[in-house]
Design brief:
single chain; alpha+beta; Aspartate Aminotransferase, domain 2; three-stranded antiparallel beta sheet; 14 helices; 13 strands; 28% helix; 17% strand; globular; binds flavin-adenine dinucleotide; binds iron/sulfur cluster
């Protein structure tokens, strides 16, 4: 018997799970758990948040099965409650590991071709403009995002969109919100250049005690920044994470992105504090051709180099290499098209079908994206520039938890 005969080994060598006997031949020794180091919320804080890698995508918040993670004032996830050590939040975080090539195979059903190395997997590239005067007036650029969502709502392709609205009492602070109507969509149009934790918005609809709807029966479109879609798909494709939350996504729209800013430092301290503009009166914020443009009514109240808010840029963007929302069904930005038009890259056949449906139904004007000049080539240049950042913290990270699949191949980053 153990402890009475031969000395008990101090630490058993790790055994592959399938080789572990169900019952020990030596009484008392057969039921030892395999020594796996648990990775829980504390590890996420240590390995991601404390290293300034957290881009506040909200995937950890959305994925916690006991609903104890929340958005914080500091734009970081916080825990309120007792952790069940399930590890789901840790393995949902795209900044722990993002095996892009594998995720792409799961999302698009194929790998990218050599021609798609820079722009990512895609079906088509277009310039697009809303035909709806209300959308055109409220939108950031050509109103592609709002019009596509409006078409999808009108045609009952989705029950609602999770996009980004404004926090009540905090002017110009974005937060994930549900848009069920044209009015909601118009209220959420335009860009806020600070992060809102979009994937956390899925929790609002998915977790019963935060929810107003039955998640199981709803079809959703998600709008987010490239990193937010990384969070959504890391969560949706990792076997230990929370694939059920991604199950009801009919399609995703990603926004092109070079960086975001800290809300307090950019909007409160600079625009309101230093430049004396009441944020309640701001009607539009834009960053174009390296200039910060802030409108009050129709008047341009700030027009100056974006360096004015350089100190407010968030540090986690320094390791981000995705400019054109490479994991979205439909990617939308301004770069590549004339003012007042949106550049739209459709990446999945479903995304292309939705865009074509919106054009055929009269929601949008569309023309091919200029293949030379300021069109695709310019967009590719910006994508290449962003690839020069160093993503090694998460693209090649080896996690301690054993993977069920063969080793995943990370995205090749051209230099
Ligand atoms: C932080 C940020 C950085 C960007 N950087 C670039 C860039 O470098 N180059 C470029 O070409 N384009 C960039 N864009 C995209 C651009 O500003 C427009 O969002 C895009 O061209 C779509 O315009 P639209 O008229 O079709 O959108 P609209 O019809 O006005 O709809 C905009 C949609 O974006 C959502 N949204 C607004 N703010 C946020 C936010 N913070 N997080 C998530 N969703 C949000 C809204 O809810 C709405 O659904 C950026 C956008 C953001 C939010
Ligand atoms: S997801 Fe699991 S490990 Fe993370 S905070 Fe929630 S209970 Fe804890
Ligand atoms: S999942 Fe997103 S919000 Fe959570 S720690 Fe990772 S990067 Fe931050
Ligand atoms: S630069 Fe990357 S990490 Fe930063 S907000 Fe944009 S997509 Fe997210």
């Amino acid at each position: 018997m153990s402890g009475q005969g031969a000395p008990k080994p101090v630490a058993a060598a790790p055994v592959a799970p399938q080789a572990m006997p169900l019952k020990s031949t030596v009484e008392g020794e057969g039921w030892k758990a395999r020594p796996i180091k648990l990775k829980i919320f504390g590890n996420l804080i240590q390995e991601v948040v404390n290293k300034n890698l957290c881009m506040y995508c909200g995937a950890c918040i959305a994925s916690c099965p006991i609903d104890i993670l929340f958005h914080s004032e500091k734009e970081e996830p916080v825990m309120r409650g007792t952790c069940a050590a399930c590890q789901v939040c840790y393995y949902s975080c795209p900044r722990i590991e993002l095996p892009v090539a594998e995720v792409e195979r799961q999302v698009f059903g194929r790998s990218r071709t050599a021609e798609e190395a820079i722009l990512g997997i895609h079906v088509g590239a277009y310039s697009v403009k809303s035909k709806d005067p209300d959308v055109a007036r409220r939108a950031q650029d050509g109103g592609a995002v709002t019009s596509l969502l409006l078409y999808a709502l009108d045609r009952k392709i989705i029950d609602y969109a999770v996009n980004s609205g404004l926090t009540s009492g905090k002017p110009w602070r974005p937060e994930p919100q549900i848009a069920r109507t044209r009015e909601d969509l118009l209220n959420h149009a335009g860009s806020r250049y600070t992060p809102g934790g979009q994937v956390g918005g899925l929790a609002e609809v998915a977790i019963p005690n935060r929810s107003v709807v039955n998640f199981q029966e709803e079809r959703i479109a998600l709008v987010g920044l490239p990193c937010e879609l990384q969070g959504s798909w890391r969560m949706g494709t990792h076997w230990i994470a929370a694939p059920k939350l991604a199950r009801n996504l009919v399609f995703t729209i990603g926004l092109f992105c070079s960086k975001v800013f800290d809300y307090q430092k950019m909007m409160v301290d600079y625009v309101q504090g230093k430049r004396g503009i009441d944020l309640n009166n701001v009607t539009k914020v834009n960053i174009k051709r390296n200039r910060l443009l802030v409108y009050v009514g129709d008047k341009l109240a700030i027009d100056e180099p974006v360096e004015a808010v350089a100190a407010a840029a968030r540090e986690e963007c320094n390791v981000c290499v995705d400019y054109s929302a490479e994991l979205a069904d439909i990617a939308v930005g301004a770069i590549g098209s004339s003012p007042g038009w949106s550049t739209v890259i459709t990446r999945s056949p479903r995304g292309d079908e939705i865009l074509r449906g919106a054009v055929e139904s009269g929601y949008l004007d569309m023309k091919p994206l200029d293949p030379v000049g300021k069109g695709i080539k310019f967009l590719e240049k910006l994508c290449e520039k962003k690839r020069l950042r160093d993503p090694s913290a998460y693209l090649r990270h080896e996690t301690a938890f054993p993977k069920p699949e063969p080793t995943l191949v990370p995205l090749e980053i051209p230099h």
